[in-house]
Amino acid sequence: MTVPPTNGNAVLPQAIDLSHHLNSLSRARQPSPLKFLFKYAAIPNLLSFAGGVPHPSYFPFHDTTISAYPFTADPSSFPSNPTEGDLLPLLLPKYGSKGNDLATALQYGASTGHPTLVKWAREFTQEIFKPAYGDWEILLNDGNTDAWSKIVRLLLEPGDTLLTEEYTFPSAQAAWIPLGVTAVPIKMDEHGLRADHLSKTLAEWETTRPGVRRPKLLYIIPVGSNPTGSTMPAHRRQEIYDLAVEYDIIIAEDDPYTFLQFPQYTVGDKTAVVPQSGEDFKKSLVPSFLNLDTQGRVIRLDTFSKTIGPGFRVGYFVANPLFTERLLRSTEVDSQAPSGWSQAILASLLTTWKNSGYLHWLSNLRDQYTLRRNHLIDSLASSFDLRPAGSTAIPNAEGLVAFLEGSEIPVFSFVPPTGGMFLWLKFYLTESPNFKSFSAEEDPEQAFMTHLFEELATKATILLVPGAYYSPWQGKDKTTTAARGEELGVGYFRVAYSMATNEEMEEGVRRFEIVIRKEWEL
Amino acid sequence: MTVPPTNGNAVLPQAIDLSHHLNSLSRARQPSPLKFLFKYAAIPNLLSFAGGVPHPSYFPFHDTTISAYPFTADPSSFPSNPTEGDLLPLLLPKYGSKGNDLATALQYGASTGHPTLVKWAREFTQEIFKPAYGDWEILLNDGNTDAWSKIVRLLLEPGDTLLTEEYTFPSAQAAWIPLGVTAVPIKMDEHGLRADHLSKTLAEWETTRPGVRRPKLLYIIPVGSNPTGSTMPAHRRQEIYDLAVEYDIIIAEDDPYTFLQFPQYTVGDKTAVVPQSGEDFKKSLVPSFLNLDTQGRVIRLDTFSKTIGPGFRVGYFVANPLFTERLLRSTEVDSQAPSGWSQAILASLLTTWKNSGYLHWLSNLRDQYTLRRNHLIDSLASSFDLRPAGSTAIPNAEGLVAFLEGSEIPVFSFVPPTGGMFLWLKFYLTESPNFKSFSAEEDPEQAFMTHLFEELATKATILLVPGAYYSPWQGKDKTTTAARGEELGVGYFRVAYSMATNEEMEEGVRRFEIVIRKEWEL
Q: Which is an annotated GO molecular function term of this record (chains A, B) (predicted)?
């Protein structure tokens, strides 16, 4: 395993000065004066009466063993009555033991994070993502929600604009909307955010938005986009990174689904997925924006939520040292550090599995979600006539278009997702006779989609997420489909395939078809 | 156990409308639109394709047993080779088990917190603190640092003033200083913050601070104050609460040391501490501000950091429902929820111990810290001549004054702490011949105390915390002892007795005495 280059590395460039991106809050943060005391910790024979911390001998826990599975375990069928060899016991020894004992984990810990876990994250980032500059740092956080909130507090000022994907995660929006920040959504296609539209938006900024501050931050979920499921290929990333350099933009790469990248879906392909070696798995991944980042303008957000468990509430930033230092100051006064239990268990699991084992686990896990994606689309194919978009005359259609069987009425289309947990269905409303009855509404598209959502939830008893939730907030004058300049006559639902069983998918699609026929058939 | 009154309770008053205290950020927060979907969850036979969450069957953990100790275990001597009866195994069963299984804990959880833990906190708060209004709520957070940071984001606007104790916790300050908020410190005595000075400060506000916005928030650590160690008795709390009502002030009661309340220290008293029954232990506690709060203007911060372990990163707010709702909106977009491991382990431990057991544990733990306090003061008594302040002629002295043995030179005084982890030493500098050599400095007190700190750290190799760290930030024009209007000719150190062994305390005091003699003797 390669140790990442340090500050002194002459091969890779160092991060450029990006301090002008810090907002006034993050500039004003000071280190705690108590940190000043740390430099005395090395004095030989020192007796410290400084730390106001509970004595770790009083934590009421003995040697504890966490029962994990080895990385070779099949995530789709863990043994229900495991024998000794089926399990991987992770020992967290009691206070007074050598090494990373439980009492250390349960004490106040460094806000930089559990040293073993930080070291793991450094080495893993170097092995998998290979940043293109030398002095990047790792800083642990409480998962990507916490991380994004910290980035908002690091960079955005009230009234700023923010570049987002055309459709983006509502919970991420909830962090910046209350600041009075508005989104500038950039159009997407099957490869994610469109570089041509980003370029046009930035080039024409002063003429289309006179007097509005230029955006300095792009928020993006480039693998298994939430909600669209798209994964951005390398060439598109390079185009976007080049624009970020040209227009001095920071890229926040929120990448929880990075290890859930699937092969293309083929209609009717019943080939089982084949586990890959760690090396082949690595090669199957699109490069992170980090891998293009020669200047340190990418803040990458990694998390264990989709790969080990969201309840850990542990993730990490990979960013330039200026940003991680300011984020550390913020961490010291809010989350302080992730849970000691979470950190100790993760550190033990990952160092025991080793990187090759973790990659093996990820490869198996990715296959599980690939099969889920396949089964949901296969189920749709059994109720609808799915045709390649190119074979139809529908404008802007990508991927597959679903027609009612035995008719020429297109109902919806979708791009089979190449990552993540979601199918993003685009509905063609103009062919629905019922849609016309909403034409007098202020926002006919949204009114009809709300109606359709209600029909699906209460009549078919299947719950999808209305697509309107993913339209970025652009301010109070842009709350309708037309006002936002979005395509008219269409609407969206997000369909998650991560939780339903195969049988539930089949049954759900059958129920879905009944409502759709009612709404679309004359 | 009494179930707390609900909104419909006619016996206790409901919280009054305090919505004018919310800042613009917290007012602007919106619930996530995804929450809207929750109301459909009760539809019979519903198939949900809404949640974008990993499948819990893939979390790589089997039935796991956490090895805790029973509440009867002596925290000063846990068995090193325990037999079965010495341990309390807490089972966290794997995915698919009935009840609170591990897979539920490791999934995304409600931001309100683990239901069992929330229920425990409600019942425990009612049993111990007995709020004086009816519709209070519990909201979990990631510990008091996180909690205080969330209160700052809930209530304070840039440029606001904040009421604090005369000496307060630097890490709490680090949350509000970058906002441009300045402190208005209120004088303290051996009972903590002085109501008479609070009253005077508020009554004379417009004349002493013309044009400055009135403070609306008081931050206070009323038990085992950090740094002074003082604990505020009930009558003082009532006076302060009445002022809060009169001047419409919110009280943030940061109370990590609430279960570490000690009996008075008596010089030379070698009586061993005696464990109390749960009922006697409860009676020994001063009432929380909650117990006086008929209007819902107290936000109480409770944590497990000092009683179970800081590494859990779990605490909880007790507050009026308006504030907990706004804090929940904030929680959803940052910490999201405490670690599932931490919550599940705490929930299991506390419900297994039961409240009576937890009180037993707390009583034992309190005794350990009482013995530590006693030993540190006993050690000081063996090197210095400790006299009751009243028997000396020193102005403003409280508690005990330490004279160099065989001399009439008073060096420092302290009030034996009645809670927490700290001794707060007040040094009389004017008797030190060396102090005079600093008289030309901008801030002679701070310059001498920094010198003394360095001497102690590098010559005596004992580390204390300089008292200046605890002076609240009042702005750039008040950075010296004189400019802040603090008492001249004195200085402070905070001494923690939570970590050192008895032998280290004795050795530390011997080393301390050598430096003090050098600095104070002619």
A: pyridoxal phosphate binding
How far away is chain A from the Cα of B12, in angstroms, using its nearest Cα? Answer: 34
Task: Quickly count: other Cβ atoms within 10 Å of residue B273's Cβ.
Answer: 16
Query: Side chain identity at A229, as an amino acid letter?
Result: G
Question: Quick one: three-class SS letters along A437-469?
Answer: HHCCCCCHHHHHHHHHHHHHHHHCCEECEEHHH
Return the CATH architecture of domain A109-356.
3-Layer(aba) Sandwich (3.40)
Q: Which of residues 235-294 of A touch B (CB under 8 A)?
A: none
> CATH topology for B108-365?
Aspartate Aminotransferase; domain 2 (3.40.640)
Distances (CA, A) of A398 to A86, A129, A178, A516: 45, 30, 35, 21
Quote the pLDDT of residue A394.
92
Total residues found in chain B within this entry:
522
Q: What is the DSSP letter of A261?
A: B
ipTM: 0.95
CB A379 within 8 A of CB A505: yes
How many other CB atoms sit within 10 Å of the CB of residue A396?
10
CA of A333 to nearest chain B CA: how many angstroms apart? 6
CA–CA gap between residue A141 and residue A347 (Å, rounded): 14
Angle (deg, nearest 10), helices B502-520 and B444-458: 130
Window 56-85 of B, Cβ < 8 Å to A: 56-69, 73, 75-76, 78, 82
Tokens 């220290």 belong to residue: B265
| Rounded mean pLDDT, B367-382 | 96
For residues B431 and B520, the answer to whether their CB atoms sit within 8 Å is yes
**A219 sits in which H/E element:** strand A217-220
Give the lowest-confidence range in A94-103, A231-240, B55-64, B470-479. Answer: A94-103
Q: Determine the distance in angstroms separating the CA of B511 from the nearest CA of chain A, rounded to an integer.
A: 10
Q: What is the per-residue pLDDT for A269?
A: 73
- The confidence score (pLDDT) of residue A186 equals 98
CA–CA distance, B22 with B11 (Å, rounded to integer)? 28
- pLDDT, tens only, B58-110: 999 999 999 999 999 999 999 988 998 899 999 999 988 876 688 889 999 88
- Check if the beta carbon of residue B301 is closer than 8 Å to that of residue A330: no
Minimal Cβ distance to A339: which of B30, B341, B507: B341
- According to CATH, the superfamily of the domain at A368-520 is Aspartate Aminotransferase, domain 1 (3.90.1150.10)
Domain boundaries, chain B: 108-365, 368-520
Q: Residue A14: how many CB atoms within 10 A of its CB?
A: 19
Query: Rounded to whole angstroms, how far apart are CA atoms B509 and A112?
Result: 33
Rounded-to-integer distance, Cα A187 and Cα A209, Å: 17
Mean pLDDT of chain B: 94
Give the SS3 label for residue A182: strand
Question: By the CB < 8 Å criterion, does A170 face chain B?
Answer: yes
Q: Are residues A25 and B105, on separate chains, in Cβ contact within 8 Å?
A: no
Residue A266 has a pLDDT of 86
Q: Between A4 and A183, where is the model more confident?
A: A183
Which chain A residues touch B37 with a CB distance below 8 Å? 463, 465
In this structure, the dihedral spanned by the alpha carbons of residues A156, A184, B51 and A498, taken in order and rounded to 10 degrees, is -110
